[in-house]
Amino acid sequence: MSSNDYTPLWQELGLDLDNHAGLLGVLSDAYRGIYLAQANRPRGMAYFDFVISEVHGLRIKEIYEAKRAGRKVVGGFCVYVPEEVVLAADGICIGLCAGAEVGTAEAERFIPRNSCALIKAFMGFKLAGLCPYVELTDLIVGETTCDGKKKAYEIFDELTGKVHVMELPHMKGPAGKRLWLGEVARFRETMEKLTGAPLTLEGLRHGVAVVNAKRRALQRLSRLREADPAPLSGLDALLVNQVSFYDDPVRFTAKTNELCDELEERVAAGVGVTAKGAPRLLVSGSPMAIPNWKVHAIVEGSGGVVVGEESCIGERNFRDLADEDFVTVEEGLMKIAERSLTIDCACFTPNDERPGNIAALCERLRADGIIHYALQFCTPYLVEAYKVETSLAGVPFLRIETDYSMEDFGQLKTRLEAFIEMLR
């Protein structure tokens, strides 16, 4: 990772320095072996490589200095966190550590062994003293997307003292919409108490415009992945989507658009990262936080290419924009709430939009098959796999269930290689 010495900063944040050094060493080795070993990468990926090399370094220093200047830091684990409202209050919105098998033994002192890997990881990162983002936050926003998370947030609040839970309805009828609008309004009040200043119309318009610009850049990147040969690997596209939760949003948007400029040149010239006609896969299901790169690495190491992610770290995060046409703060909050209820998370019932959205995405990206990826014990996505598969009859479909460990790497590789071979 970084060659700079951030030890005093990590020490001030209370990290376990020995364990943290070990974690960065493992991540650095994995990144070199998975990402930097790829051939024919676009030049524009150098920026995202730099971000990863400094994800616990320069970015932490930036946030630390902004916090000392008076800005508030809000962290979360979900796309329902209203980033627009955080930016409207001149805050910083960041994703928290959750994508690696870390601190498992510590986490299992507080939560059941059969908790999903994401819950176990965010508890583990905190308990093992390995997440500088958690330590920098002034507020952590939880949400009731599943029973495991909402109960874990109670314990997480005991550990951190700064969790605010938003109650997400599980049905999208009029009552559910009223509930969610009330929760977004309650979050506004929380942000106003945190900053000591009222939310302004100008600030909210700014917040919506910045987040929409980021979504437009990610939409542009997604459209470029329609090309055959694919101009960008699925691994690199996944990385860009993951970085969108950590980087400064304005800078991220500019760098993503620069990457897209280069990819447009590649598409025009017929330059790809794989041979034309390579099997094209859509990965659908549970989100993949940094450094969860296992499935993409296996697929692309087996001759396929991932052309899309139907995931919260993917299309679900940027498919729809918030309406920027509002004249009061209250109307703006309503537009933000309405946009987030277009997200087809498996926590909703019925969730009829998701199969249709997957079918449309599969057709647009010209995917040859779908890999339905679910974390072990992630009940909403595990159960919904049946509905997705049966509604997409005729599209080659493979269900996989895994976690953040490497114990099933060989088994997954065998199954994915066989699936890709079937698509040839």
From TrEMBL:
It holds the Pfam family HGD-D. InterPro entries: FldB/FldC_alpha/beta, YjiM-like. Gene3D superfamilies: 1.20.1270.370, 3.40.50.11890, 3.40.50.11900. It comes from the Bacteria. Belongs to the FldB/FldC dehydratase alpha/beta subunit family. This is 3-hydroxyacyl-ACP dehydratase. It comes from Geotalea uraniireducens.
